[in-house]
Sequence to fold (305 residues):
Amino acid sequence: MQRIRYFEEEVTRLRAAGDVVGSVHLCDGQEAVYVGACAALDLTRDAVFPTYRGHGWTLACGAPPHALFAELLGRATGVNGGRGGSAYLTAPQYGMYGENSIVGAGAPIATGAALAATFDGSGRVALAAFGDGAMNQGAVHEAMNFAAVRSLPVVFLIENNSYSELTPIADMVRVDRLYKRASAYGIPGARIDGNDPSIVQDAVAEAARRARAGEGPVVLEAMTQRIVGHYIGDVQHYRPAGDLERAQAAEPIGRLVAALTEQGVPASELDALSERVRDEIAQASARALADPLADPSTVLEHLYA
Ligand SMILES: Cc1ncc(C[n+]2csc(CCOP(=O)(O)OP(=O)(O)O)c2C)c(N)n1
Ligand SMILES: [Mg+2]
Fold:
């Protein structure tokens, strides 16, 4: 979680300096969802389908920070040769099958990957991660129904941060317990604390076990909050007084540090770990900045029409 947080802080700096260009969606505050879920999966065969808010998912899947910084910086050494950037990263060699900027699009794609698993004998589980706002996309519900009726190995994981861009969830739905919609498809649904990595890990592990055993999909609603704007540059004028402060008080890294300290882990040990990760991120960023930009003459490579 700390690696993701430092990564995002460094991306913020690189974006302000003009080294990273284009739209960037940070995930600060939601790290426990990614770390907990990925710890529960077998990423040598399972497949994760995140949204555009995908840096944390990609790091949690195990992709090296240097290759991600290089991607965001348009470097030839990036995970996608500098072509994907922040919003279209993909790293299938780590089980991360691609961000998507079409809200909710990951759900039918993950369902397709799960359908393929019923033919290829891989034992793969597909995890579709999407936001609370995406729960109002028709394609998400078509995917859930199809996966349910075919008992496909999918985990539908809602990252409920209670905002869809600048719109609070109360303005979008009458029933804010989104997991309850699972019952309409005859599959289990549950709401979990998305700021506790162990709780997320246990819930995803059980959902993946069921899926792999042919018992079908599950909907998990992980409650979390972003402690940054929807995108870099969002001044968050729509957040009521005290909302951001409450989110900061509940963010998962501070919570875990407090829990570990209470269990007797010395502060010096936690500080040393944090410093080590901070150095790792600083070095990865510096290395990526020194790498060559993608060569414009290669722009037609990997292009199919
Ligand atoms: C199909 C589609 N509709 C609208 C948008 C514009 N849009 C981009 S992000 C976003 C909010 C999505 O909110 P949520 O699903 O809760 O995810 P979060 O950004 O909170 O992680 C919207 C509406 C889009 N990218 N795609
Ligand atoms: Mg949201």
About this structure: The chain has one domain: 2-294. DSSP finds ten helices and seven strands in the chain.
